Amino acid sequence: MLDMNSLKVGTVISYEGAPYVVTFSQHVQMGRGSAVLRTKLRNLLSSQVLEHTFKHGDKIDEADLIRTRANFLYRDKDEFYFMDTKTFEQFALSIEQLGHLASFCRENSDVDVMYYEGKPVSLELPKKIAFKIVQTEPAVRGNTAQGNVMKPATLETGYVVQVPIFLKEGDTVIVNTEIGNYVERA
């Protein structure tokens, strides 16, 4: 059993008999009442997103998931294909099941796959991953006159992230996979 203070982004809970992942959480202090936790939950089976407010005394069940290691093989349109590293069994996850994590799947990279009732339902990625910049505009002297010190850069997975203007094509950057922003140069 979890309480509302242990619900963070990425926590997987059992809510109304289905597994949900917390995609947003915010503690809110009410005027004279106790604090509540506003959350957005994404159903791992149907990808449906709902908003729910947990009160201070609410007890939340942790989802009964099995985590196993898998290798990301390739992407075919909206399907992502993986291979279990122990059983060598191949399976696919849709772009809807992966959500924003689809932007950070690189071929031949190892990921943790979450199984619910014997079926793969989602991934768990490291919080920070290094990616190579494949396309970005070159920095021009005087670009900082308006205070704009960031520019868009396309990563090897096709994801576009804002990076500092001193970075160029071929550089490696570390990206936060939870919120999808630039952290530092690798």
What is the total tally of β strands? 15
* Integer tally of domains: 3
Q: Find the structural class using helix and strand composition.
A: mainly beta
- Overall morphology: flat
Estimated share of beta-strand residues: over 45%
Along the chain, the helix and strand elements come as: EEEEEEEEHEEEEEEE
Helicity, as a percent range: under 10%
User: What's the rounded overall pLDDT mean?
Assistant: 87
Q: Strand order of the main beta sheet, please?
A: 4-3-2-1-5
Main beta sheet: 5 strands, antiparallel
Domain Translation elongation factor P/YeiP central: 67-121
InterPro entries: Elong-fact-P_C, NA-bd_OB-fold, Rib_uL2_dom2, Transl_elong_fac_P/YeiP, Transl_elong_KOW-like, Transl_elong_P/YeiP_cen, Transl_elong_P/YeiP_CS, Transl_elongation_fac_P
Domain Elongation factor P C-terminal: 129-185
GO molecular function, one term: translation elongation factor activity
List the helices and strands and how they pair.
Elements: E1 12-15, E2 18-29, E3 35-43, E4 49-54, E5 61-62, E6 66-76, E7 79-84, E8 90-94, H1 95-98, E9 110-116, E10 119-124, E11 128-136, E12 150-155, E13 160-164, E14 172-176, E15 181-185
Antiparallel strand pairs: 1-2, 1-5, 2-3, 3-4, 6-7, 6-9, 7-8, 9-10, 11-12, 11-14, 12-13, 14-15
GO cellular component, one term: cytosol
GO molecular function: translation elongation factor activity
GO biological process, one term: peptide biosynthetic process
Describe this structure in words.
With 186 residues, the protein is mainly beta. The chain folds into three domains: 4-62, SH3 type barrels (Roll), CATH 2.30.30; 66-124, OB fold (Dihydrolipoamide Acetyltransferase, E2P) (Beta Barrel); 128-185, Nucleic acid-binding proteins (OB fold (Dihydrolipoamide Acetyltransferase, E2P), Beta Barrel), CATH 2.40.50. It contains one helix and 15 strands. Strands 4-3-2-1-5 form a five-stranded antiparallel sheet, with no helix packed on it. A five-stranded antiparallel sheet has the order 8-7-6-9-10. β3 and β4 (49-54) form a beta hairpin. The radius of gyration is 19 Å and the shape is flat. 19% of the residues are buried.
